[in-house]
Design brief:
CATH superfamily of the largest domain in chain B: tricorn interacting facor f3 domain
Structural class of chain A: mainly alpha
Helix content of chain B: 10-25%
Largest interface: A-B, 37 and 37 residues
CATH class of the largest domain in chain B: Mainly Beta
Shape of chain B: globular
Low-confidence stretches of chain B: 18-27
Helix content of chain A: 55-70%
Structural class of chain B: mainly beta
Strand order of the largest sheet of chain B: 3-6-5-4-7-2-1-11-14-13
Distance between the termini of chain A: 94 Å
Shape of chain A: globular
Strand content of chain A: under 5%
Number of domains of chain B: 2
Radius of gyration of chain A: 32 Å
Mean pLDDT of chain A: 80
Strand content of chain B: over 45%
Strand order of the largest sheet of chain A: 6-5-7-11-10
Oligomer: heterodimer
């Protein structure tokens, strides 16, 4: 057996430990960032003043570039604040904001013990034990720090700007990771790409205060530390890696991606014969420390060892120990003895392994979901959720993405990624193989759930950064060699770096083939020919190499221009996406009409009304989408919310919404509900209203209460609310609450979302009464009428009652008892 | 029911006071020759103009005139002003007089008094004319207490047909102006006339002191009953050139409570019939040259507001998130910046003073509890406030951006504030300009130390190996 290949350090990446590598590698345009190295370089080599100066200059330059990238990442996410206002967005962020408020008010211990009785009435929810606390603790810490410095920012402001700040951190982490893989040039490019990748912007604009905002940073940083450990074999970084993993576990359920991807990579390294002690250092402490730390997070707890998501890491943990043992034995035994030992161990080991695997399989198979959580299962089997768990399938971000959404979210990166993959294979190192594995798995996951596009984005940025930087490297070098004025100077510099040129050149050709072919069809043929010509003599002699291992000047210039154009296109697209597509807070809607900007602020109108004009302990029922907002903005108790942990409870509300009025009243009354809130977009044409979500209510309700049948609401398999709609549909509570007195607005009751006149226009409500409707009718709030009094001579009594009221005071209108 | 009980108690009180007064000898030497009272009920702040022609029938010069109020009114009394008029018709000049609340031990049934101090003592036999304006808040009681969306709002006003006074009044008349011609009922105390929007009680001749005859007017009033339950105005002075004002409101509609259904379609389609007593616009009058105005509440910006500015004033028209019906409330914050030189001056003794308007900038609103916090810059000393009327004062400390010792806050509190209280007040303090540099210097030194630490770190070799 050959000894495991030593870790392949691409000459383009600066060596982590050796300071001397810095000035030997003169081709490195972007020397390592670390300032101490520069200072030692200055001290050590007084003779090569020019080079060290260049390095120092490069360091300073890359430092400022990174700074600007951070500023860019932060400021591109401020469109929402500038165009709208400094406000928390959407649904989940409101919950996180509320938790952060609680944390900053009551302290960390109260937070861990927080039992929230304002949601999931009457069940309540243990917030401290069911929430990923990373984001909350991060924002809470920032707030506490600022306040202890007497900078009186509100919790809301801190929450709004947490995501942009962390995307700046994420782009710096990307720089570090890519630098470990392919050198600082690729790192800077990748960081710049990540700073403005639309997919990440969609989740981290100012105000979208969600777990992903900090989790992506944690993800990239954990990967960086893993690669760093892999490259250096330092236990220090391994410990940091476990801590970063801990932060990731705190932040997001997506940590399972890390704990599966890293074992996969380790396994890959072992299988391809790349085992090294560094790999062991990178992996074993992570599993041990990481699992112990992860179990500290209440929401994970024993899941860190019990669920199938984590099995892969333990399996690989065993494997790596076996492999390490084998390498150790091999080192101390003679080849002959070793062979004997192998046969012995393999025969015994196989038996043991089979037994262990059998036990494991039996254990796993005994649990109904095979030990996987619903969301993970729907990742492995994309059809699982739609078959068994409608509540997961009903969430729009859990749908598979469409092709245009790839172009929308990662844009030109989709074309650059293949080039980056090829660049990673020349030469293939542990680090670059990790990146390749990362992109492959994340492409799969993003194909299952549109939400996981977010995991793909950093991978795409890293690989595109590598591709772009390699391509730029080649083209600029070609130009530099061929410009006569520069040749003299560059020759001096280039002499020491011949191996680099060779290495670089092979990469160049690869990158060219992949990266350039996509953009420059016309010049492709020419170049291929030239490349073939150039590659052959490249082996011959140094002098020739310098002149011939380059692309023709014109082609390089054109290619450069096209690359810049491509980058420009990307930037334009990203700015557009940040400004137009992803900055809307979805609480406030705007529309541009011929008479200017029109603002639809109905949601907050309704929530403000609820919070000021209802009793503080009133219960509000609505579909679960609006649960978090109601608790956070209206401060009222809700029945269900966006943390969809109890399917039966949600099904109860779904059943009530799809039942006729009386049955619905009974359900709501039994839940102590006082107000029912529905969202209705028919008047202004707001498409994501409750009528459009209604089929999910029917499905989820019907899943638990079988008397709700989906076909009853469909006419010939079609969902419609016009005159062809089924009577069940026209009599259900949701229809009635949405369209109550709608006909009086225009006389025809034309629904602008469904683009049809509604089926049943005139009807009365007998068990509910309208108490509030917002300005554009987008939110309608109804109150449950009190229970009917059991009075015998009903008619007489009520008449005398109305008389007595009118005698005390003249009432202009005729009073009607709704119970008659 | 409550109203009836209230009316009864007033009646009982009046009878009792009459009996009491008959047995009592007049100790005063003043007579009111002629009294005219005009009660304006058009808004929810009741304005009463009293013109008293006072004659000294005693032997000694009198320097004070007493005004009497029933205890129920005193609690709602927001302000009392008095003017002495001299001259005739066109040459009339008004001299403001000092009015102070007074305790008299022998006031019948808890009658409360205010003393008007005359500028020149009234000699025996002389007459003078005094004009009194007093304003009452929360004096219109909605009846019925709950109305539906389509009904209009009816309110009670209770008072006496005669002016309550410790003096003998020879002739008096009361005019009551209602906002519309719709008057449901009113107490008849002959002679009583009603013409259009005006009710006339009197003239009544020769009523003894403390005469009281309760009247109730029940009429329609659809004016917005906008009451700010609590208003906190924070005025923060920065010597770098601006004043930041932040006003937190809790607004309530105190008219007849809304009951039952709120139908948006009716509210939008028939604005003249539906929800007539509700309101959705408010006007805030801000100082001129106002900048960076914001209007928001705890869940974000409220997008319905308009700002109009010209050289003399700024008007901010705001709409709460939803129209306010009776009993509904809303909270919001208005904030704005002002140029420093318009409000901060240096007094001759070298101290600086802030000259700012007291009261609530919203037009036609009552503020139940008004708190003004003047945040002086860090390092200012000896604060003192000068307010033309009585307020509660105390000092606080506030920590703002990078403060070390904290800023002194002068807190002024007043209950029952109305637009007439929008008069300037002054806060004097001493301040050394060197304190302005404290925070920039602090920041600079922190950054300097940080770089020094970096430099030091780079030059120290901490490694164990050599």
């Amino acid at each position: 057996m050959t000894p495991p290949p030593s870790f392949c350090i691409s000459p383009k990446s600066s060596l982590p430990q050796s300071t001397q590598a810095n000035h030997l590698n003169r081709n490195v345009n972007w020397p390592s960032m670390a300032a101490p190295e520069t200072s030692t370089a200055i001290a050590a080599t007084p003779t090569t003043n020019g080079t060290t100066l260049r390095h120092a200059f490069g360091n300073v330059l890359s430092f400022f570039i990174l700074l600007l990238i951070g500023v860019l990442a932060f400021s591109i996410r401020l469109f929402s604040v500038i165009k709208y206002e400094s406000i928390i967005h959407e649904f989940d962020p409101y919950f996180n904001y509320r938790v952060t408020q609680f944390l900053s008010k009551n302290g960390i211990y109260e937070f861990w013990n927080w039992f929230d009785d304002r949601t999931w009435y009457p069940l309540g929810r243990v917030i401290g034990g069911t929430v990923y606390p990373g984001l909350t603790l991060t924002a809470g810490t920032i707030w506490w720090l600022l306040n202890s410095l007497n900078i009186p920012l509100s919790v809301e402001t801190v929450c709004v700007f947490t995501a942009p700040i962390f995307s700046a951190f994420a782009s710096w982490a990307t720089y570090l990771l890519t630098k470990e893989v392919k050198g600082p040039g690729a790192g800077l490019t990748a960081a710049a790409l990540l700073a403005m990748v639309p997919s990440y912007i969609s989740r981290s604009v100012a105000g979208s205060y969600d777990n992903e905002a900090v989790a992506i940073f944690a993800l990239i940083f954990t990967f960086y530390l893993y690669i760093k450990t892999l490259n250096t074999g330092s236990l220090f970084y391994a410990t940091l890696n476990a801590l970063a993993y801990f932060y990731m576990v705190c932040s997001w359920g997506g940590y399972t991606f890390i704990i599966n991807l890293i074992p996969m990579h380790v396994l890959l390294c072992i299988v391809t014969g790349r085992y090294s002690p560094r790999l062991y250092i990178a992996y074993a402490p992570l599993v041990v420390l990481g699992t112990v730390l992860a179990a500290l997070v209440p929401v994970v707890g024993f899941n860190a060892v019990m669920t199938s998501e984590h099995f892969a890491s333990f399996l690989v943990f065993i494997v790596i120990h076996v492999v390490a043992f084998v390498y150790y034995i091999k080192g101390i035994l003679s080849p002959k003895m070793f062979k004997m030992a192998v046969t012995l161990v393999v025969s015994v080991g196989l038996v043991v392994c089979c037994a262990v695997i059998a036990v494991l399989v039996a254990l796993v198979a005994s649990s109904p979901t095979k030990g996987w959580s619903g969301r993970s299962l729907s990742l492995l089997d994309p059809t699982y959720a739609s078959k068994y768990i409608p509540i997961i399938a009903s969430v729009s971000e859990h749908q598979p993405p469409t092709w245009p959404s790839y172009f929308m979210d990662i844009n030109v990166l989709a074309f650059l990624v293949p080039a980056g993959i090829i660049a990673c294979f020349s030469p293939l190192s542990d680090a670059s193989s990790f990146v390749v594995l990362y992109i492959v798995t994340s492409v799969y996951f993003s194909g299952v759930m549109v939400r996981l596009m977010l995991v793909l984005a950093p991978a795409a940025c890293i690989l595109s950064g590598i591709a772009l930087s390699q391509a730029f490297d080649v083209f600029t070098r070609s130009i530099k060699f061929q410009l006569p004025s520069l040749t003299m100077n560059s020759e001096v510099d280039e002499q020491g770096s011949n191996p680099v040129t060779v290495e670089g050149q092979t990469e160049v050709t690869k990158t060219d083939k992949s990266g350039v072919t996509l953009k420059e069809r016309p010049s492709r043929k020419n170049k291929k020919k030239e490349k073939e010509q150039l590659e052959k003599p490249s082996v011959k002699s140094k002098a020739e190499k310098k002149r011939l291992l380059v692309l023709p000047l014109e082609a390089s210039v054109i290619a450069l221009l096209l690359l810049v154009l491509l980058g420009g296109f990307y930037v334009v697209h990203c700015v557009w996406a940040a400004a137009e597509a992803y900055s809307a807070p979805s609480i406030v809607l705007t529309s541009h009409s011929h008479d200017g900007l029109h603002v639809f602020d109905d949601f907050r109108e309704a929530y403000a009304w609820l919070s000021h004009n209802t009793d503080v302990d009133d219960k509000v029922a609505s579909w679960w989408d609006y649960g978090y907002q109601t608790t956070a903005m209206a401060n009222r108790t809700v029945i269900v919310d966006n943390n969809t942990w109890n399917n039966t409870h949600i099904a109860t509300v779904g059943t009530a919404m799809s039942s006729p009025e009386k049955a619905a009243w009974e359900i709501f009354n039994s839940l102590d509900v006082k107000y029912v809130l529905v969202v209705f977009g028919g008047l202004v044409g707001y498409p994501s209203d409750d009528i459009n979500k209604f089929l999910w209510m029917v499905r989820i309700g019907g899943g638990v209460f079988p008397h709700i049948k989906e076909p009853d609401y469909l006419r010939d398999g079609q969902y419609r609310i016009d005159s062809q709609a089924t009577p069940t549909m026209l009599n259900c509570l949701m229809y009635k609450l949405s369209y109550y007195r709608f006909v009086e607005t225009d006389g025809k009751a034309f629904d602008r979302v469904r683009r049809t006149e509604i089926g049943k226009k005139y009807f009365k409500l007998s068990h509910f009464e309208e108490v509030f409707t917002t300005h554009h009718w987008m939110v309608r709030i109804y109150k449950l009428k009190p229970q009917k009094n059991r009075i015998r001579g009903k008619m007489k009594k009520s008449k005398s009652k109305s008389k007595s009221t009118s005698s005390s005071k003249r009432s202009g209108t005729l009073k009607k008892n709704p119970w008659q | 029911m409550e109203a009836v009980v209230g009316a009864r108690s007033i009646l009982a009180f009046a009878l009792f006071s009459l009996l009491f007064l008959l047995s009592r000898s007049s100790a005063h030497q003043l007579n009111i020759v002629n009294a005219e009272r005009r009660i304006d009920l058009t808004s929810h702040i009741v304005k009463v103009f009293l013109t008293l022609k006072v004659e000294n029938v005693g032997t000694e010069p009198a320097s004070e005139i007493l005004l009497a109020f029933p205890p129920t009114q005193v609690n709602h009394l927001a302000s009392v002003e008095a003017l002495a008029t001299t001259g005739k018709r066109k040459k009339k000049t008004y001299v403001p007089l000092i009015v102070t609340p007074t305790e008299l031990p022998d006031g019948p049934n808890g009658t409360k008094y205010f003393t008007i101090s005359l500028a020149n003592p009234l000699n025996s036999g002389e007459t003078t004319t005094v004009e009194v304006l007093y304003l009452l808040t929360h004096s219109l009681e909605p009846f019925p207490a709950e109305i539906s969306q389509s009904e209009s709002q009816l309110v009670f006003y209770k008072d006496g047909a005669m002016i309550l006074s410790p003096y003998h009044i020879k002739q008096q008349t009361t005019f009551i102006k209602t906002p519309s011609t719709r008057v449901e009922s009113f107490t008849m105390v002959e002679p009583t006339n009603r013409a259009g929007t005006e009710l006339k009680y009197g003239p009544y001749e020769d009523h003894a002191s403390y005469s009281f005859s309760p009247i109730i007017v029940h009429f329609e009033n659809n004016n917005p009953f906008a009451v700010v339950e609590e208003l906190v105005r924070e005025v923060e002075i920065s010597h770098w050139g601006s004043i930041q004002v932040r006003e937190q409101y809790r607004l309530v509609h105190t008219g007849a409570r809304h009951k039952g259904v709120f139908s948006r379609v009716e509210y939008q389609a028939r604005p003249s019939h539906s929800g007539v007593s509700s309101f959705k616009h408010l006007l805030a009058r801000l100082p001129p040259r106002v900048h960076s105005v914001y209007y928001r509440d705890e869940i974000g910006n409220i997008s319905s507001s308009h700002l109009r500015t010209d050289s003399r004033k700024s008007e901010l028209e705001i709409e709460p998130r939803y129209p306010l019906f009776g009993g509904w409330s809303a909270t919001f914050v208005i904030g704005y910046g002002l140029p420093l030189q318009d409000f901060l001056f240096e007094s001759p003794d070298g101290r600086r003073y802030l000259n700012f308007s007291f009261g609530c900038p919203l037009a036609d609103t009552v503020v139940d509890k008004l708190t003004i916090k003047v945040v002086l810059p860090e390092g200012s000393k000896d604060p003192s406030a000068v307010v033309p009327f009585s307020v509660e004062q105390h000092l606080e400390t506030k920590y703002s951006y990078l403060d070390v010792v904290g800023r002194t806050v002068v807190v002024l509190e007043k209950k029952n504030a109305i637009p007439v209280h929008n008069v300037p007040f002054q806060v004097y303090y001493t301040f050394k300009p060197i304190f302005m540099l404290a925070e920039p210097l602090m920041l600079a030194s922190v950054i300097f130390l940080f770089f020094m630490a970096c430099v030091a770190y780079l030059h120290i070799d901490l490694s164990i190996r050599k």
